[in-house]
What we know:
This protein has 323 residues and is mainly alpha-helical. The chain contains 15 helices and no strands.
Amino acid sequence: MRAVRRLALRLSAVPASTRAYAGLCVATMAWASAFVFGKIVLAEIEALSAGAWRHALAATILLPFAWRARRAAHLRAALLPLALMIACGGVLYPWTFFAALDRTSATNTSLLIALNPALTFLLAPLVGERYTRRGGLGIVLALCGAALVITHGDLAVVTNLAAARSGDLLALGAAALWAIFNVGSRRVVAHLPHALTNTCIYGFGSLALFTLASPEQPLEQLAGASPAALGALAAMVVLSSVLAGQLFLYGVHTVGVGRTVVFVYLVPVLTAAAATVMLGEPLLATQVVGGAAVLAGVYVTTRAPRPPAGAPLGGYAGAPSRQ
């Protein structure tokens, strides 16, 4: 117990922005694992049912933490953007993510969902975030690097994303939904504890998804799933939903949505690295160059000039800094 307290004391001495960026690196690894685990889950469980169980289990894990933090919540101030987050992140995104992953390749899904930071960049002025020219350059650089990693330098991969393919359209829709979720989160993190926010999103989202998935008999699907599928689902819940969800909201609160979402570009880089180590796939020169571009883009964006003293990080006038 004393060791835990000493560790907590040391972490509290680290600047909030440093903790946020370190947490976002961990969140990125968790997001990358979702593509692998998601394929395993979808081999035995339908998309809607998988999304419903993922959110229900995540809400169950977070519920005790949310209950303890309930007194610090100002729900009325965050009600409308929270409802938007529940609709986009709790219901529509998991549905479209699993549906896209089920209908198209993980490469196409990753490439199109990697557009999320760019879409968020376009929407961020709606919540008062201002971007410098340097920050915009970092986002473009990271996007180019992500595309290079996924396509291996073959532009035909991009041109073959046919509009007629439903999986590709769903992946593009998932990227747009995530961008709207990101923008909504900026209005929520200043008023609600992170655990309570995610519990509401996952809890209400799971109720809606279970209703939509009722013809699929989600309980029977879960009961009939193999240990491998159940383990993959549990890994998605703990890593991608619970852990990454908490770290993401902390990042938004501390350094702003613009600097937070750029970490999504690291996902294809980590996926390529994992494929090399775990699957024995060769590490191509284009992957190395693309990965370097992604890291450079993240660095440029996160090192963008800070606002004047007294102004909140990210340019949003309503969010307090935790420095």
